[in-house]
Amino acid sequence: MNVTNPSGYVPLKYIYSAERLDELGQLLRIQYPSFARTKWMSHFQTAEWHQAELKQRVSLVAHAFSAQLPKDYNTAIDILIPVSQQMTYGYFGVIFSEFVALYGRKHWDKSMEAMAIFTQTSSAEFAIRYFIQDDPKRAMQQMAQWSKDRNHHIRRLSSEGCRPRLPWGMKLQLFIDDPKPTLSILERLKADPELYVRKSVANHLNDISKDNPEVAIDTAKKWIGTHRDTDWIVKHGLRGLLKAGHPEALALFGQEASAHLTVEHCRLHQSELTLGDVLQFEVRVQNQSDDTVKLRLEYAIDYVKANGKTSRKVFQWTAKEVDPGIHTFKKRQVLKDFTTRKHYAGVHGWACLINGEQKASLSFTLMTGA
Fold it and tell me: Are 101 and 167 part of one and the same domain?
């Protein structure tokens, strides 16, 4: 079966291959001798399985755990924990915390213990959200405790798990409405020694900025200048506001205005491309003032969606101080599919943004071969 598209990427759902699921069954049998491997593999030979997308497959594996393991939840978890520590395939391991989300919400303490272990070889960021929804106060007390943990995977979970708009995860409407309960977690982690944790804090702050920009800006004002690593979090966390040209966000980085910066020339090297080709473009920016000014240069692509409409994605190009005069910038981007982005044929827009303001626009036609 061909599971690739013209750009060559393999959908993430195929991480749950027959080989890995059989390996998982062998490990389960070691921990639980009554485990029936043949019956186990039969769960993944149905039409439902073959048609299932990524998140559906994760749930189907978790349900298969329930069908094959002891009905007592605590006993089942004690079987899964040592197995999870041997199946270190990144995202693959979310099946273990998915079992917790589906069957462990009435077993709070055991589930918290399990997720703290499962997140160290994969992630429990999706599962913990159900517990936050069930009992926000109790769950956030647990998150606060995790934010002090010696293990950086557990500290990251304390931030990532309560992000208001976690990609692929359930939205936490209570924190979209009021993100303040999560701020003490971020405060504790704002200068964490691990980049893995700091990235989560930045992404969490960016989530907040989408619905509560004033809270994100106030937090950034308190943090900026306190630590080099925290400054990186602030800039990355406000990226959405910076791309949108939010005046207060731009002011934090000395990019209040773009009046003196103009695009004198821009071009796309090709007007027609096929999926897999490289889009090449360049611009000439002129600083018309007599002083050095800060430039935040970005480009946007208006991607054609399946319904024919377009959706804009803004990409950072460069950020630097530029002297008076003309400056040339060149860039290239491969047009290929990703798990999070699928390309469709049609006329795509391209735009140049300076300090959040669109200064020029062009277009190109993409052919996907489909």
Answer: yes
